[in-house]
């Protein structure tokens, strides 16, 4: 639920939260993260599109550097179609969406390391399980733990890892596009997610010793390679410069 998605809130919510707005003197507090904390959300959920239509255009500022922009935001998928039609809008009701997630997890095929699945290699999703849905049970004892399996798995997939915080009751949905056919994958944080009961027979995947360093380094190398491979020379009338970013 970061600002790059564009926010839309009700007047009632805005009037409620403005009275508790973070003090500008607290420079260590990001207002977007602050709005995300449970006492302010009060059980609310943010409606986030699977593919954003707004790009984080700032290359530098109080909370972003050109380096972060290139390695993180430039690697995201953005919708470039101004006339895109949104699908499944009927799911944007809390009770309907809860039922939908329950039904999806009930019919999902379980991925496990014992059967050859490797979290950092989506190619190991068996062909007979595609296009899914498939589900993996990950260990997480806190939604704010940056080293939980939920966060490390996000890095394995080279997504924006902090988006794992924007989970729905401990469930994160991914659409894996690097395999054929594209596959829907659910990651469930256990034991804290109320949906763990739907996959109680699945083996819980826990981080191995040294996993944080290895996976973070692997993700950073991937981002750098992708960044460098998508550079081009931008030529002006009297000089040229190299543009580092996705084309």
UniProtKB/TrEMBL annotation:
<keyword id="KW-0479">Metal-binding</keyword>
<keyword id="KW-1133">Transmembrane helix</keyword>
<comment type="pathway">
    <text>Protein modification; protein glycosylation.</text>
</comment>
<keyword id="KW-0333">Golgi apparatus</keyword>
<keyword id="KW-0328">Glycosyltransferase</keyword>
<dbReference type="Pfam" id="PF03071">
    <property type="entry name" value="GNT-I"/>
</dbReference>
<dbReference type="GO" id="GO:0003827">
    <property type="term" value="F:alpha-1,3-mannosylglycoprotein 2-beta-N-acetylglucosaminyltransferase activity"/>
</dbReference>
<keyword id="KW-0812">Transmembrane</keyword>
<keyword id="KW-0472">Membrane</keyword>
<dbReference type="GO" id="GO:0016266">
    <property type="term" value="P:protein O-linked glycosylation via N-acetyl-galactosamine"/>
</dbReference>
<comment type="function">
    <text>Initiates complex N-linked carbohydrate formation. Essential for the conversion of high-mannose to hybrid and complex N-glycans.</text>
</comment>
<dbReference type="InterPro" id="IPR004139">
    <property type="entry name" value="Glyco_trans_13"/>
</dbReference>
<keyword id="KW-0735">Signal-anchor</keyword>
<dbReference type="GO" id="GO:0030145">
    <property type="term" value="F:manganese ion binding"/>
</dbReference>
<dbReference type="InterPro" id="IPR029044">
    <property type="entry name" value="Nucleotide-diphossugar_trans"/>
</dbReference>
<dbReference type="GO" id="GO:0000139">
    <property type="term" value="C:Golgi membrane"/>
</dbReference>
<dbReference type="InterPro" id="IPR052463">
    <property type="entry name" value="O-linked_mannose_GnT"/>
</dbReference>
<dbReference type="GO" id="GO:0047223">
    <property type="term" value="F:beta-1,3-galactosyl-O-glycosyl-glycoprotein beta-1,3-N-acetylglucosaminyltransferase activity"/>
</dbReference>
<comment type="similarity">
    <text>Belongs to the glycosyltransferase 13 family.</text>
</comment>
<protein>
    <recommendedName>
        <fullName>Alpha-1,3-mannosyl-glycoprotein 2-beta-N-acetylglucosaminyltransferase</fullName>
        <ecNumber>2.4.1.101</ecNumber>
    </recommendedName>
</protein>
<keyword id="KW-0464">Manganese</keyword>
<keyword id="KW-0808">Transferase</keyword>
